[in-house]
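Re: the pair you flagged

First of the two:
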Amino acid sequence: MLNIGLLIRWEFSTPVQFIIGRRFYVGAYKALRKGYANMDVLIALGTNAAYFYSVYVVGRAVFSSHFKGSDFFETSSMLISFILLGKYLEVLAKGKTSQAIAKLMDLTPDTAILLTQDDKGNVIGEREIDSRLIQKNDVIKVVPGAKVASDGFVVW
């Protein structure tokens, strides 16, 4: 019951399982040595179950003339491929997020106009200060078209 398609799937999935998926084995080994299980352990267990069951199916097909089993070589390869693609997309997204945060940091103004108020809330004075000196509950003045540093601050 051994056919060429089964052997080709085995041949193509083996490098994916053990060369490309090596990082999951290393991560799983390190995690298990420290006494905990992480995503690498789950990936290694799942892909190994699919791969080695498929190897069992190949072995049974070699020694049996009537055995009809399904192999899952493509399942382990696809799992590893999808997970690595997801990790790659995650790295891209983090890079774009970092760039966006850097651009937002460039939008912060150098100075702000701090208002001083009396007990009744009436403005009695204003002065220009460095925007890094603004503290929570400070009241700052915002003029039209100005950059605003209002991270948790009351803007009036």
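Second of the two:
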Amino acid sequence: MADRPSRFSRRAVAVCLLLVAAGLPSRPQATSTTDTARHTVLRMLQLNLCNSGRAGCYTGRSMAVAAEVIDTEAPDLVTLNEICQGDVPALRRVFAAVHHGRGVVSAFQPAGDRPSGADTRCRNGQPYGVGLLARVKTPDIPGGVHRGIHPTQDLADPEERAWLCVDVDRRLLACTTHLANTSYRVALAQCGHLLDTVLPTIRGNSGSVLAGDLNLRVGGDPDVRSCTPPDHQRVDDGALQHIVATGGVTICCRRSVPMREATDHPGLLATLVIDDRPPT
């Protein structure tokens, strides 16, 4: 589902159509990623685990269910919202086992805490924020992780929302964020700044994709499409989670993944087709 017509290569769209026609296997092999001279195909999974221990949606079961989903779906990229710092290495072990023998990188960015000037904390005392897992060919690219705190925040909310990006083999800048849930206008400003300013500044010649709980809806006031640039493509889970990609990255084969009421959001799984040809 795209917000506006986008100019993607006919070949990339054809790859997507072939994927849709073939259907997504229920348990893809870890070697299923297509890597050709012209295109790379990656599967991306967005999860909001509500695992701070402080929110009403906390069940204590979301990490176990997330591990099962990662093992079953074998995504190449996983973006994580509402997690504790220790959740990243725990899920990285599952992710690395799925991609046994291949390079894996992980990253975490805590949300800020305005009253203390330090990090927001989970109930277990660990920093709370967002994370990302990626399968890569070259895990030690210098400067491959980018992170920050959004410049616009809801001053009535002590939590300062954060963003996080990882450079995936210089082919794709993969990013995640969890935007403000106390003010739709603040969430819209954070979304616009990230897509219009932050990502274009750091992605270079590569495409980029942002996945996360944006706390904005299609048809809402404001509408999430208000912060999506014209040449970007977007899919969602029917509610607040979205995947947004720049030109040169085609999104297809989106579906929701049940989380068995372990959290208040489903997983959002999509296939990305990246045009590897140099820009003309």
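Residues 10-20+38-274 form a domain with the Deoxyribonuclease I; Chain A fold (CATH 3.60.10.10).

-B.
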